[in-house]
Amino acid sequence: MSPNDAGPATRLLNDTFLRACLREPTPYTPLWLMRQAGRYLPEYNATRARAGSFMGLATSPDFATEVTLQPLARWPLDAAILFSDILTVPDAMGLGLSFAAGEGPRFAHPVRDEAAVAKLAVPDLECLRYVFDAVRSIRRALVSKDSEGRAAARVPLIGFSGSPWTLACYMVEGSGSDDYRTVKTMLYARPDLLHRILEINAQAVAAYLNAQVQAGAQAVMIFDSWGGVLSDAAFRRFSLHYTRAVVAALQREAEGRRVPCIVFTKGGGGWLEEIAACGADVVGLDWTTDLGQARQRIDDCVALQGNLDPAVLFAPPEIVAQEARAVVASFGAAQRADGRFGGHVFNLGHGISQHTPPEHVSALVEAVHGA
Questions:
Q1: Is residue 316 classed exposed, middle or buried when 0-12, 13-18 and 19+ CB atoms within 10 A define those classes?
Q2: Res 5: pLDDT
Q3: Which of 19, 112, 154, 170 is catalytic?
Q4: Are 355 and 315 in contact (CB under 8 A)?
Q5: Mean pLDDT for all residues in the chain
């Protein structure tokens, strides 16, 4: 599954995002948004209606390509991110993923006992071919012509997966949760079962992300959305340990360049130093951690991504711009007095809300690029 099979251009018209990930000089702070293709965009809602359902949208390479490109048609964002869902991997394990109208994801066959855990296995990646086909399709669609008429990709494409722990939360709970009672009960009462789930998940996530890279993803992100619900010791044993195993197994070079890895743990500010040492190139932060202080804590050993509170986007555009500039200022100058560079990729501290006015995103993008 080489990207060359699809014939995408490997040259980039805008590589600012990749350069920031690798702490190289950039002319401005690059920007993309978690969940940037989503329900806040009327064009996304129109495409989803044509697809008939969320899964109809996510499992169609054509529809996934269409919605991935929609925010890029509105704003000069510095990266595209594959439109998919973090639960594709456990779905491919046979757990029966569904999205009921007005509800979140739900599994028909949650993993809660020894028999269910014993049946788990790394899925056949052929079951996820629609994801890799979407990656190839998006890479083709991103190709345009430069000023000399040569083919080049507009911006890089980010692939992603949920972390082993976050996937396990959904797999054991069977859906989203307010208190994670079922998975935490397993964690304390039967840690052997949970470790087995996490081992399978880590192998599956690494294989899944590597297949995305082989299909053409130019960076990958691991979403540890629920790492922050764990106790201090449990986070290290049940989340970070397995995230580190995934990162260690990733393909880090493709098409003659580094493939940056981003790790984002919501609520993970207290473990910043340990997360920064996991082998990733970039650590994502939510809005509860000051970027400048975070940068000092890790001494620019990795780049940082974040971290505007998504709720800021409900404020008037002039306030959105003010708050965005404050985040950029908090990170500080990219080049340090000793000549080293720190990398900053601007993002929200979590996914953009479906209630966000698109015109407020316009103010955000303009402010960040002009800061």
A1: exposed
A2: 45
A3: 170
A4: no
A5: 94
| Distance, CA of 76 to CA of 213 (rounded, Å) | 24
- Taking only the tens place, the pLDDT of each residue in 204-257 is 999 999 999 999 999 999 999 999 999 999 999 999 999 999 999 999 999 999
48 is catalytic: yes
Q: What distance, in Å, lies between the first and last C-alpha atoms of the chain? A: 40
Mean pLDDT (whole number) for 258-275 = 97
Residue 343, burial from CB neighbour count under 10 angstroms (0-12, 13-18, 19+): buried
Tokens, residue 346: 């601007």
Which residue has better confidence, 100 or 182?
182
Nearest to 326 by CA among 290, 302, 356: 290
Residue pLDDT, tens place only, 114-131: 999 999 999 999 999 999
Among residues 15, 85, 224, 281, the one annotated as catalytic is: 85
Residue with tokens 């079922």: 182
Check if 35 is active-site.
yes
Go through the domains of the chain in sequence order and give each one's CATH number. 3-16+33-72+79-296 (3.20.20.210)
pLDDT for residue 9 is more than 50: yes
Q: Look at residue 220 in the predicted model and tell me its pLDDT.
A: 98
Catalytic entry in 19, 23, 48, 112: 48
Which residue among the candidates 19, 23, 35, 106 is catalytic per the annotation?
35
The one catalytic residue in 39, 196, 252, 258 is 39
> Catalytic annotation on 85?
yes
Taking the CB of residue 151, how many other CB atoms lie within 10 A of it?
Answer: 13
Taking only the tens place, the pLDDT of each residue in 42-52 is: 999 999 999 99
Q: Does pTM top 0.90 for this prediction?
A: yes
